[in-house]
Amino acid sequence: MAALTDIGYIRDLLGRHGFRFSKALGQNFLVNPTVCPRMAEACGASPESGVLEIGAGIGVLTRELALRAGKVVCVEVDDRLPPILDETLAGLDNAEIVLQDIMKVDIHPFMHEHFGERSVSVCANLPYYITSPVIMGLLESRYPFTSITVMVQKEAAQRLCAEPGTREAGAVTMAVRYFAHAEKLFDVSRGSFTPSPNVDSAVIRLTLHNNPTCTPAEEKRLFALVRAAFGQRRKTLSNSLAGAGIPKAEIPALLEAAGISPTARAEQLTLEEFIRLAKESLK
Q1: How far apart are CA 109 and CA 66, in angstroms?
Q2: pLDDT of residue 262
């Protein structure tokens, strides 16, 4: 079989199946032959482990994962792709395509059904328009993934991997950092895809924390405070935290109890300070 990143092969393959790229699904297929092997290695796939992939494309990453992992399950929403994948993944009996919308998947029963007791990592080239919802859905499921290695828009990668307390950090930075350690692995230029998107990409890896820092009630309050603070990030916390349902008259005393300056803004706080604020607000 020709390399799945060969542009001539891709055009012939898609032409034979009458396939046209869907802008609505954010479809951009990789033609850079170095990217998927690097991603497959970075996610730690091994013969003893499983890998959950989200979005197969024509199977470029799927194939690299299947050559390394004991089992690969790819959740794919486009029902036009299975006939193409039957061709490109021929002979790889450990790769399975499941036609479902990942945003509607109940993670725990799905993982038990398809992977049993295997340890599982996530490795995927995520469509830009669902990057944050997918990542947060996986993290909030609290399934014990060994890691989540994904390709995302470069700007999103910078935001997801930013250090809390810096100007680049946002609400999603804090949410991701609560669940995992985030690191950017390498950049991927827009010319690595067909059709070429208008932005560059980057591959990031999230290594999940084992123990929650907060109780469920504290966690709920933490995320409410983060959303309120970053929703009006130009305002001081004294003015923005009312959006989390805290009476404005009580905010100065709350900030003082948490050891936070009343003139501080969201981007100046670390995750630990937001957690302290959440805990104090529930006393």
Answers
A1: 22
A2: 86
- Cβ neighbors of 226 (< 8 A, separation 6 or more) are 171, 174, 175, 266, 274
pLDDT tens, position by position, 192-214: 998 888 999 999 999 998 777 89
CA distance 112 to 118: 9
Query: Collapsing DSSP states into helix, strand and coil, what is residue 164?
Result: coil
Q: What is the pLDDT of residue 13?
A: 93
Q: Which CATH superfamily is domain 216-281 in?
A: rRNA adenine dimethylase, C-terminal domain (1.10.8.100)
Give the model's pLDDT for residue 2: 55
Four-point Cα dihedral 68, 73, 77, 80, nearest 10: 70
> Phi/psi at 180 (nearest 5 deg)?
-155, 165
Q: Which residue has the tokens 């591959």?
A: 203
Report d(CA 14, CA 35) in Å as an integer.
21
**Amino acid 244: pLDDT:** 86
Return the DSSP state at 4: T
Q: At what angle do helices 171-179 and 216-231 cross, to 10 degrees?
A: 160
The list of the chain residues with pLDDT below 70 reads 1-2
7-208 placed in CATH 3.40.50.300: no
> With contact defined as beta carbons under 8 Å apart, do 251 and 243 qualify?
no
